[in-house]
């Protein structure tokens, strides 16, 4: 996401200078006024220029919002969303009375919607950005549940010395299990099977 800080005699002058440097239209940027200009003593000494920060709006975000609006309206569900730009990805949090419909069974609908949103938002983009969809903190709660499950099963496998197959999971959920147990002393993990029935096996170390 491109951004620039610019100074000028007035706020408007600083904005225009920044737009020219970025090579974009005014409608393509978000404007934050950092400092108002001051005249100083006698209008000369201690004079300070105006300072603004211009951030180029992400077309990826706009396309993602448009796609989600269309999906939500077509489904007729009462769901809204907020966008939170992060360093490594764009987080879009869904919330509302019908948000459970968009989560689906063990998050399968949410994962599918996330996949489609990434396709729609990054189409023809030279610099694609990863979009993560969450629904009222569902992913964090689900991750904690999976980590507890992984640790509990790992202890049983370690005690009994026999491998244990977990239920089929999405690639993202399998990754959580693998990460949770990657440094475990008594077990190791691997995946087997074909999608959508691919599952994690927790096996004892020999």
Task: Tell me about this structure.
The chain has 206 residues and is α+β, with helices and mostly antiparallel strands. It folds into 3 domains: 3-56, no CATH class; 59-136, 2-Layer Sandwich (GMP Synthetase, Chain A, domain 3), CATH 3.30.300.20; 140-204, Ribosomal Protein S8, Chain: A, domain 1 (2-Layer Sandwich), CATH 3.30.1370. The chain is built from 6 helices and 9 strands. It has helices at 11-22, 59-75, 99-103, 108-122, 138-160, 171-181, and strands spanning 3-8, 29-35, 50-56, 80-85, 90-95, 131-135, 164-165, 187-192, 199-204. A 3-stranded antiparallel sheet has the order 1-3-2, covered by helices on one side. A 3-stranded mixed sheet has the order 4-5-6. Strands 7-9-8 form a 3-stranded antiparallel sheet, with helices on one face. A hairpin with a 6-residue loop joins strand 8 (187-192) and strand 9 (199-204). Helix 2 (59-75) crosses helix 4 and helix 5 (138-160) crosses helix 6 (171-181). It is elongated.
Enumerate how many helices there are, as a single number: 6
Kindly estimate the percentage of residues that lie in beta strands according to DSSP.
15-25%
N-to-C SSE series?
Answer: EHEEHEEHHEHEHEE
Number of strands: 9
The average pLDDT score comes to 89
What CATH calls the topology of the largest domain is GMP Synthetase, Chain A, domain 3
Considering DSSP H and I runs of 4 or more, what fraction of the residues is helical? 40-55%
Structural class given helices, strands, pairing? alpha+beta
Q: Please give the radius of gyration in angstroms.
A: 25 Å
In CATH, the architecture of the largest domain is 2-Layer Sandwich
CATH superfamily of the largest domain: K homology (KH) domain
Largest sheet: 3 strands, antiparallel
Shape: elongated
Given as residue ranges, the uncertain stretches (5+ residues, pLDDT < 50) are none
Organism: Carboxydothermus pertinax
Pfam family, one: R3H
Region (Jag_N domain): 5-55
Subcellular location: Cytoplasm
């Amino acid at each position: 996401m491109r951004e620039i800080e610019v100074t000028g005699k007035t706020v408007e002058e600083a904005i225009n200078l920044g737009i020219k440097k970025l090579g974009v239209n005014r409608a393509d940027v978000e404007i934050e006024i950092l400092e108002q200009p001051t005249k100083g003593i006698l209008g000369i000494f201690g004079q300070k220029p105006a300072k603004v920060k211009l951030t180029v709006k992400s077309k990826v975000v706009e396309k993602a919002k448009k796609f989600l609006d269309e999906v939500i309206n077509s489904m007729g569900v009462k769901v809204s969303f907020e966008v939170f730009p992060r360093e490594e990805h764009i987080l879009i949090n869904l919330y509302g009375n019908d948000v459970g419909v968009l989560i689906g069974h063990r998050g399968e609908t949410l994962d599918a919607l996330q996949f489609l949103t990434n396709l729609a938002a990054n189409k023809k983009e030279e610099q694609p950005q990863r979009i993560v969809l969450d629904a009222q903190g569902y992913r964090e709660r689900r991750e904690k549940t999976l980590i507890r499950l992984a640790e509990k099963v790992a202890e049983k496998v370690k005690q009994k010395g026999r491998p244990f197959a977990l239920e089929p999971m999405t690639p993202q959920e399998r990754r959580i299990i693998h990460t949770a147990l990657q440094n475990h002393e008594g077990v190791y993990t691997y995946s087997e099977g074909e999608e959508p029935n691919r599952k994690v096996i927790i096996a004892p170390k020999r």
